[in-house]
Design a protein that fits this description.
The complex is a heterodimer of chains A (503) and B (405). Chain A has twelve helices and 24 strands. Chain A is an alpha+beta fold and 503 residues long. Chain A folds into two domains: 104 residues, no CATH class; 343 residues, Thiolase/Chalcone synthase (Peroxisomal Thiolase, Chain A, domain 1), CATH 3.40.47.10. In chain A, helix 2 packs across helix 3. The longest helix of chain A has 19 residues. Chain B has an eleven-stranded mixed beta sheet, sandwiched between helices. In chain B, helix 9 crosses helix 10 and helix 9 crosses helix 14.
């Protein structure tokens, strides 16, 4: 797709699978329309918006494609077919994604008549300089890695005095690479930091039950945005319909912004999101913060290739607000210094780093300082903290920092996920936070300390509320589910590099 | 036939046909191909260029493959004529519009031509075809072959074909390709003039792990075809053997295949044929020879059902039984039906804008008894033949019923 207006229109419809429902006869359509073909003029003004983004479909028939059109060549081979929604009221074309097919065992009937979930993905390959086309006509089976979950808007019951986390979600791709003690997440070839951000945001909306139209601001922190200029947050806002939708103009009344500060791009905005929700004049009942990265690393035999042993892919999203809070934001402390321990120059594909100096003068100095600063400010002792989460670029650093601060294994292990997913950069410490929120009981204190190279740390203290337990049943796609799911699939190093590079 | 003969006077007639060989024409551009087919048709009809009142042309996507803008201008320059010319997407569409114009009394002598030059863009052509055929399916990863395979899956599910029956079904589809290749050996214009066997067709599917394989699909081709259409009065002055276009019709369907209600056949084909028969005032059983749009073997089979030759869910069995000991025709409901005697799209070739021209070419030759080696032996006189041409994956269907004088 070289035309930018065509791309705008196709992705506007396709990302969300927008359609219509005839208010007269109940006929449904994929792609919005102003009147029903059966009812004609009398249906004018009676067509209702319908979209299939949170629906589950059925793969009715399919075929095996091993000679795709040029735009899909990088997928190799895949299953393509017809997906129906609402018992056949609507049928759309779709391909199965997240699947590596073994060509000698293709039995089409084993794929047919199974429930599928639409997935937001890159549509097909384009030139390096082109707009990245996206679509949700990609599907995965509902009984595998990614379950179907309903999106229900829940009316809030309680307003809190302190702002905090209202809901959250984490997303890690199904593929993994396992080397020695560490297992790392690998994106499928049609995934990137944009698609994982949308997935995490979707999970946070499902978990929180928040009306997306009340989300007034969305921050997306990333250091692997496939665009040098063009925000991920705009895509997230449109696909997740954040803020009030102004249909006539096709715009969302939401402020969307990308942030960048290596791996602390997202955590930095927690306080901003909370403050915005707290300030009545902002008219922003909820604000969403997403940390997303398809973490970049040069191949092993190149300069900076050491990172290639640790990088993962994933995102986590947090919705901040004053209503039905599951974890109140007790306080924060941030510190910053101009320490050039890790960087990526413009137009360079991979980051470089300062080798041994990424440890003591960088990671440890800032993480420990921020943690101590927070605890001093809030007058906290180590024993007052139930869970300690820190940035996790590898297994050694966070354990060493926690130990230095006096935390014990039962405090820092629940939030240590790097051995499952690898370093998800901006999503790394938030992923640990999500893992802890999945487990924490009411009235427990969580301290999270991020680290962003360049350098700085944000430390937060959160205190869980009774609502953390109630909301838990809304989320099937937990961090643990993703870490231990039997459908996760291992790839070799060559495949991992190819997938990471993407379309 | 008395009444009908009287009626023939209101129908336009084909008085000459011409075509090029289909295949790869590396050295020839589209103009050269048009010229060749055009000259052959004019020669066959015995007309002079200057006698022409108008021209109706077709190419599906020459604008994309060859970056040709206003085709009519090229043709005007080629012919040094300034007559009205129009361009459609398919030959059958050009013929339909030419028929309307002649029948309205506006023109007496019209050139109908079609051309395509697909091999010039062989490396990008499947993307082009798919995007034009069905953009949303393309975005979802569809290929030009995939919709055929989905229709096949729908068909075997709907008719509960499995186990041994499915094997027979698959063999029947393979036999279609074998049969068409066999026909093409007698067609000097055909792209593939060599025989294949069922094993080869089945093996290609097995190697690709697909329901349909390399030998199930029509190739990418270059080629052109042309005919001269005349009003019945004018036709008599040129030939003793005019072939009348007694029923022409077309119908449309949704561009997105998955969103269609009917996915085990083409609604457009069914409607177009019904209307064409009505116009011709005959029944489907009057038709003895047909050129179907076998973009895949499946589509030849499906079209037998869509047009009403075979019962729904039964065409493959008719084919299977006819091909056990193939004698040059299908036997359906106790009647001989000659199908794709030129080799069909599969073996004759499928240069989109010219394909319909090759179909008409074949039926005209057969009806006039000029098909030499390929001449069919009908029971009794061969009166009626028909063609079916599709645009996209059944998005448009055109049917023409031809009758000899």
């Amino acid at each position: 797709m070289s035309s930018e207006p065509i791309e705008r229109r196709v992705s506007y419809i396709g990302d969300r699978l927008r359609g219509s429902l005839c208010g007269v006869c109940g006929k449904e359509y994929f792609r919005a329309r102003d009147y029903c073909g059966s009812c004609g003029r009398k249906s004018f003004g009676k067509m209702k918006d319908r979209d299939f983004f949170y629906e589950k479909g059925m793969l009715e028939v399919c075929t095996f494609i091993n000679e795709p059109t040029n735009k899909f060549t990088k997928l190799g081979s895949y299953i393509y077919g017809i997906v129906s929604f609402h018992n056949g009221k609507v049928r759309v074309p779709g391909r199965l994604t997240d699947s590596i097919l073994k060509e000698d065992e293709i039995d089409l009937s084993s794929f047919e008549d199974r429930e599928v979930v639409p997935r937001f993905r890159r549509r097909h390959a384009v030139e390096q300089s082109d707009i990245i086309p996206t679509i949700s006509l990609a599907f995965t089976f509902a009984d595998e890695y990614y379950p179907h979950q309903k999106h229900e808007i829940v009316k809030p019951k309680k307003e809190y005095k302190t702002p905090g986390i209202v809901g959250y979600g984490a997303y890690v791709p199904k593929f993994r690479i396992k080397e020695k003690t560490i297992e790392r997440s690998v994106p499928f070839i049609d995934e990137d930091a944009i698609t994982t951000a949308v997935e995490a945001g979707k999970m946070a909306l499902i978990h929180s039950g928040v009306d997306p139209s009340l989300v007034g601001k969305v921050y997306v922190g990333s250091e692997s945005n496939p665009y040098a200029v063009k925000p991920i947050a705009a895509k997230v806002a449109q696909v997740l319909k954040l803020g009030k939708e102004e249909q006539t103009d096709g715009v969302q009344s939401v402020d969307a912004i990308d942030t960048e500060f290596a791996c602390k791009a997202a955590t930095s905005m927690f306080k901003d999101a909370a403050a915005l929700a707290y300030y009545p004049g902002a008219h922003t009942p909820y604000a969403m913060v997403i940390g997303t990265d398809n973490s970049q690393a040069a191949p092993r035999d190149e300069l900076g290739g050491e990172l290639d042993f640790f990088v993962g892919c994933g995102a986590s999203a947090f919705i901040f607000g004053m209503h039905d809070v599951i974890a109140e934001l007790e306080g924060w402390y941030s510190c910053t210094s101009d320490t050039p321990d890790f960087w990526r120059r413009d137009l360079e594909p991979y980051p470089r780093h300062g080798g041994r100096f990424t440890g003591e003068p960088a990671y440890f100095k800032h993480v420990v300082k921020a943690a101590k600063g927070l605890m001093e400010r809030l007058k906290l002792q180590v024993n007052d903290v139930n869970y300690f989460v820190s940035h996790q670029p590898n297994l050694r650093f966070p354990v060493k920092a926690a130990t230095e601060l006096g935390f014990k294994e039962d405090q820092y292990m629940p939030g240590l996920k790097v051995a499952n997913f690898g370093n998800t950069y901006s999503g790394a410490s938030p992923m640990g936070l999500a893992a802890v929120l999945d487990k924490a009981k009411p009235d427990e204190r969580i301290v999270i300390v991020s680290y962003g190279s360049g350098a700085g740390s944000d430390a937060y203290s959160l205190i869980t509320t009774s609502q953390i337990k109630e909301k838990r049943r809304r989320q099937k796609f937990t961090v643990q589910h993703q870490a231990e799911n039997e459908h996760r699939e291992y790839v070799d190093y060559i495949t991992y590099r190819r997938f990471k590079l993407g379309f | 036939m008395g009444d009908r003969e009287f009626m023939l006077h209101k129908f336009p007639a084909v008085i000459g046909v011409g075509r090029t060989k289909f295949g790869e024409h590396y050295e020839k551009d589209h103009e050269k191909l048009v010229e060749e087919s055009w000259l052959k048709a004019s020669d066959a009809a015995g007309i002079e260029r200057k006698d022409l009142d108008a021209g109706y042309f077709s190419d599906y996507f020459l604008q994309i493959t060859n970056k040709v803008g206003i085709e009519e201008g090229f043709l005007s320059e080629l012919s040094e004529l300034h007559i009205p010319m129009e361009k459609m997407r398919s030959f059958s569409s050009a013929l339909l519009n030419a028929c309307h114009a002649v029948q309205s009394g506006k023109y007496n002598l019209v050139l109908v031509g079609g051309v395509e030059k697909m091999t010039d863009r062989w490396d990008k052509i499947r993307d082009d075809l798919m995007l034009l055929e069905d953009p949303w399916s393309y975005y979802a990863g569809c290929t030009p072959e995939a919709n055929h395979e989905l229709m096949l899956r729908e068909y075997i599910k709907k008719h509960k074909i499995s186990g041994e029956t499915l094997e027979k079904f698959n063999t029947a589809l393979a036999q279609i390709a074998v049969k068409n290749h066999q026909h093409a050996t007698k067609n000097k214009y055909a792209q593939f003039q060599k025989e294949i066997d069922v094993d080869r067709v089945l093996k290609a599917r097995a190697t690709a792990h697909k329901p349909l394989g390399l030998f199930d699909f029509a190739p990418v081709s270059d080629g052109a075809a042309a005919l001269i259409l005349a009003s019945s009065e004018v036709a008599q002055t040129y030939t003793d053997m005019p072939v009348y276009v007694v029923g022409s019709s077309s119908a449309t369907d949704y561009i997105t295949f998955p969103s269609r209600d009917e996915r085990t056949g083409f609604t457009a084909s069914r409607i177009a044929m019904k209307n064409a028969l009505k116009r011709a005032g005959i029944s489907i059983r009057d038709i003895q020879i047909t050129e179907l749009y076998d973009q895949s073997t499946l589509l030849e089979m499906i079209s037998l059902e869509d047009l009403g030759f075979a019962k729904r869910g039964n065409a493959w069995l008719d084919i299977y039984n006819s091909c056990k000991d193939y004698e040059g025709f299908y036997e359906i409901n106790g009647q001989k039906l000659f199908v794709n005697t030129n080799g069909g799209l599969k073996a004759d070739g499928n240069p989109l804008g010219a394909t319909g021209g090759a179909q008409i070419f074949e039926v005209v030759k057969q009806l006039r008894g000029e098909a030499s080696e390929r001449q069919v032996e009908a029971d009794g006189n061969l009166w009626f033949g028909c063609t079916l041409e599709l645009e996209g994956f059944g998005t448009k269907a055109y049917t023409h019923i031809l009758r000899r004088d």
